[in-house]
């Protein structure tokens, strides 16, 4: 009976030491991954990295991580001198393969990411004298309201949409009001203010924007991909 108690104590102690060592190892790996991602994406601060699954050490031994969650913070998309802030990009990577020397992450079998565009940021990125706001729903789809500026029209509003393709975000007016189309140069001037494209270059490779949901609190974008290369 005494021997059994001693054995149980040893098992508990060894198990506790293994868990402690496992947690230390995963924390070190998360810090190193955050450092590499920050450098490769030129981020202003280390992103948050969380490696899921237990035990971590056995995952490393098999050179495969079940799941890696990252919060990359705010990124920037730019075009024609205008920069659009993309808020709080978060990405989850599944079935992540490590390099032969365990020094870097090769790729993830699949990944999903989400981020948000605020209407003040869309306004700022659209240029001077342009306002972008939520425009309600039409046929079940969220719209944006764009208020451009034209000298002969004191109050001009158009409805539009935000879409995404590849790593490019697009803001477009659905149509130009008749009263504007009747004025020389008005349609072109308005399109210059309402129609924009911003390229998001900081996405991990093979992660592509594929869904946009427009709502009162902002524009939510999602991205998905397979065989995604993680930065760093």
UniProtKB/TrEMBL annotation:
Which one Pfam family would you cite for this protein? Answer: LmeA
Superkingdom in the source lineage: Bacteria
Provide the taxonomic classification: Bacteria, Bacillati, Actinomycetota, Actinomycetes, Kitasatosporales
From the Swiss-Prot or TrEMBL record, give the protein name.
Answer: DUF2993 domain-containing protein
